[in-house]
Fold each of these.
Amino acid sequence: MKYLLLLCAVVGVSLALPSKLSRPRPWWNAKPNPGNRIVGGFQIEIEDAPYQVSLRKFGHFCGGSIIGSQWVLTAGHCVSSASKPSETLRIGSTDNSEGGQILKIKRAIQHPKYNYNNIDYDFTLLELAEEIKFTESYKAIELPEQDEPVTDGSMCLVSGWGNTQNWSDNPRYLRAADVPSVNQEECSKAYEDFGGVTDRMICAGYEKGGKDACQGDSGGPLVSGGKLVGVVSWGYGCAEEGYPGVYSRVASVRDWIKEVSGI
């Protein structure tokens, strides 16, 4: 049986499909292959992606993006709604084990339409307990307008501390990969055995695979043109030929983000 693996998140979510299985891609759902992260990418410094954060609970398990001085956007399958979340965030560090700052989360607001079964509306907003004073190592990323399109083939940057499928890469340090956005209809056709993709999703990757986000990258940023266009969400395997990565489309919920956060 093949497995559809989501890119990091809540424990034990799964849905049986005709011949495959859909499940989240947290660290604990990764295939046995220690020492893995962003596939086919390169190491970067936090200053190259100062909006990137590490979501933590007994260590890193998801990514996220700073969108305001007191707000972070991550995946809905990473954190559900909670008035007193137990998770924390590390900001301002290339190394996900030390450095930067550790911040407490005041509350988590999962999108009210988040679908447990097909991972639609895969968004959670995290309100921080205190404001971030921006520096070169941590600052907010610009957001698109509601329903702002991403042109097919636009180059995007995905980053995180997730799987690389390369034993020689040190899992402590931030990595990134350049991936082109994929036509929506083509992506939905590629994933037709999994029910396709919805309008709240955007795909990015190469037809022959080789570069992708993977376990541990969930909730992290997909950036194009200086804007946060996607949130790492799910995909079949990692960097598999014929299966681009699937991201939550930020422009599809821009009004909800503004309503909740004021941003």
Amino acid sequence: MTALAENSAAVTRPTLDTAYGLFIAGQWRSATGGADTEVIDPATGAVITRVAAAQETDVDDAVAAARTAFDDGRWAGLPARERARILTRAAELIRSRADELVAVESVDVGKPVTLCRPVDVLTAADQYEYAAALAHTLGGHTRPSPLPAHAYTLREPLGVVGAITPFNFPLILSSTKLAPALAAGNTVVHKPSDETPLSALVMADILTEAGVPSGVLNVVTGPGKVVGEALLRHPDVNKIAFTGSTGIGRHAGALAGEALKPITLELGGNAANIVFADADLDRAIPAVIKAFTFNAGQFCMGGPRLLVAAEIYETVLAILAEAVPTVPVGDPFDAATLMGPMVADRHLRKVEDYVTQARTEGARIVAGGHRIDIGGGFFHAPTVIADLDNSSAVVQEEIFGPVLTVQPFADEAEAIALANSTLYGLASGLQTSDIGRAHRVAAGMQAGIVWVNDWALLDPSIPFGGVKQSGFGREYGPEVLESYTKTKSVVIAL
């Protein structure tokens, strides 16, 4: 898929194929009418390749291929241990082709190569290994009953899954859906983001090499208004797994609801990170900076709202003013870089608009507050904003960029109230040395996952997902199988 040599000593910006096609029924093909679209390197603003822009008829073909592959049992009919063997092989191939995946993900999204390998690529391998283990657990149970009958349950795959994934973590968030869906015996039509589609195409190649039969996985690239809508409305798609913004998630949920089609929604976030006066600041400050600069702030489980005990508020701001400007921002292929660009110019301009609004409202810009001119890319300085009212849109809305708002609180009750004061509830965190407080505050925070004394500690065994307008359903952990299977009861009269 790329001209990058496997197992290269150092990952460099790759030379990509002229154009990438759709992957349908085990074959690469052009979109109907030959339509395609540009893929931009966010670090340079240059066109790096083109990908097919599918039409509705292409989606129909992909769904038909997935439906045939499900109905004839070429995948669901395999013993669970055989599906597990293939998924384990996929994990092995991800690791063996890590340099290629790192290069593709970095040039496509702007992720620093030093973070992309352990965070994105190796996590994806872990996801497939964990899903392989889950495949062995898909059994039913006998149910004691006073009826004159023998009753038991079966766990069965749903059928064709439409997976719709976003631009910010394309490899991880596609694997989060594909791996458990496949482990359960479903077939999949995957629509990756039209801004960052490349690792999804590489994964089609890897899963095929691992032994996934033709038609079981189909990858259809193109605009959401065409491909996403067609998947949501298609009568032969049995379930939708969606990660994206809350606004688009509402629309997706409404369309799925029209057909009474099950959907899981992992949506936006605007997490609070609480620093109590008893926190170890040498440990807390690095966690705070990681929480809002990781992936240039394009992280739905990031921590863009910092709540600080009033007695240490100015102390923390002074530390951030000194530390945040030292975060290495630059070319993702430079080993020294820890924060790369925004994925596209429109995202960069959105961040600039929020910073401008904060200035208009009289906020204090503690650090950053401006774009950075690096090689024509879409870079914004990590930015810290203090003294905004909690009602400000800059505090309440998901900025999705490297911006941290900082607010003081008087006591534990106010900290929890401020943390829960937005529409979102995907992640949250707190920094404290008091174990009792850690348990109390974690219990009070309205979020699907709470981190204590760090941020973004994730593992395929630990479920995550949203509450409130951050969505519903859980990914990771054994809980994920509930999203990709249905329960059938069998009752045999005696």
Amino acid sequence: MINHKKYMKKAIKLAKKGIFTTSINPIVGCIIVKNNIIVGKGWHQKRGSEHAEIIALKMAKKLSYQATMYVTLEPCSHYGLTGPCYKKIISSGINNIFIAVKDPNPQVNGKSIKKLKKSGIKVHIGLMKKKSKFINREFFKWIKTGNPWINLKIAMSFDGKIATKSGESKWITSKKSRSEVHILRAQNTAILTTSNTIIQDNPSLNVRFSEMNVIERKSFPIENFIQPIRIIIDSKNRVKQNHKIFKIKSQILLIRLKKDKKIWPKHVKQIIIPKYKNKINLILLFKILGTLNIKNILVESGSLFTSALLSLNMIDELIIYCAPIILGNQSKPIFLLNYIKKLSQSKKIIFRKISKIGKDLRIIINFKKTDKL
């Protein structure tokens, strides 16, 4: 008996290799099997390059005839930066295909499945659907809602504080945790912060390969990698060109209520957002960022802004690096949610994963609202 699940697991593992370089595209893995032997495999490596299925077919060559394909997402059926994959699959002679999950993109969404069935290929949908959907949860949300997936990264003490009373926060967590943050940044299309953070901490907010550990650095696909867009919410036009973030010439978006008259470098663009109660309308902001092909955003900011996002139910995933220190009740907390008076008003979360990073704990949390994506 063929262990179909085993081959789909391998396809999912392959798909994850594209997590740093596919940009707005989903990550996809593909395995081709003939007589219980893998004859072709591929993953989507970067936006605009060949899709996983085409790479696997090229590897299999004539052995794809009468073979079985396992793919983590429905093959594309439209012309984008590449041609439709389903045509190549049909012409290759594949006679069986296991598709983990349908592509939610309206340009696809079952169209390839119909074409493949019509050609006589036996099509099986739903093998390891939940895991395949999970690895593309950010893509699914963005396609379905138009809004980017929001990841929030926080470094805190054991008692939930992000800085001392005087504002000292460097460094709460260990070097190992800080090294991992560069991997986390690299997985997102954009990194978002506020003018408060820029003025207080003067960060660069880029991915620095030199600060990754040796193993991460060796395996990282630097040749296909593009630095994330850096977004600064600056409603009062407070940031200056002498801040470190502007020295690095990857794209920066300044989110403002009105433009200033300064001449900014070419890599800096001002985006004007209508105000809501004299502040930037965050709901509208994220909708606009979604239209700019920003699939996922890592938020790195202070408690005022993170509390605003939490109050609006806009955080999808919370990544906490918890250090084995206690800072006391005079220090700055993660969230400022003064409106919560009863347990019934509390924010419901799901502990997804807890692991040790050096001396610290990494806690990954999802919110109930995203559980069905």
Amino acid sequence: MTVRRTRRLHVLALGVITALTLSGCGGGDSESQATLSGPIVIDGSSTVEPLSMTAGKLFTAAHPDVRVDVTASGTGGGFKKFCADQIDVSDASRPINGAESKACAERGVSFSALQVANDALTVVVHKDNTWAKCLTVTQLKKMWEPNSTVKSWNEIDPSFPNEPLTLFGAGSDSGTFDYFTQAVTGGASRTDYRASEDDNVTVAGVAAAKGALGYFGYSYYEDNTDKLRAVEIDNGQGCIAPSVPTAQDGSYKPLARPLFIYLSDTALKKPQVEKFAEFYIDNNAKIVEAARFIPMTSPQISRARAELADIVETAGQ
């Protein structure tokens, strides 16, 4: 399995892979497992990338003749390739938009979406930042809105220190950028910040400056709790921390969100892609746990399983 960068090697430990493989591969009988082969090409969200990397690694442990290639050009970048029929699966941290759906239709690419996890889009600061324990959505908007000139923390709140505010965040091809910007500012963002499709750049940037602030998916924070501190968010109903329960029940407003994979009908006609999608859902709880994402609830799992059955049937017609 080829990937753009190495991350969370502990989730790919042999013991975890062996345990998951033995617990059920979701790929049919042993004969079909032995003969399954071919590539699966995945691109898209940097947030979802580690989850698909984990699913791919575990899947190829059960099906060694299948090659799963995972890269991350951002949700928007992934959809561009997906609608050009260049990839089989598009990782997405937001739903496909109207322009992207139109591009797919114009190229004759029919597709379906499956939820594969939950997320709490997490605002992070430096470990030594002792003042910004909770921020309101209004304060975040003041930082991030277009043409914002805020350059110091005391411009956000007079009780905050006169510490330079350095911002890090997702690039414009990222679904995380789209989701955060829509939730916080209504759809647009200031441009004078360090933007990257690689969330590890935000991790490093915030960890290096006492006055820095950034945002990304919850799993990236979970991997870097020794370097960063998560900020609680107040949407008018009190300060709520990002967590598994608050993401699942939606109380972490407005930054709780679902995560998706998109599959084209053409790709699903490939046996290895169909079996991979089934594996992703049938073993979802264990994959999500291994990758340290926020799992789906039981109703979400049941819905995804039913949706996948319909998707596979439709794609085969």
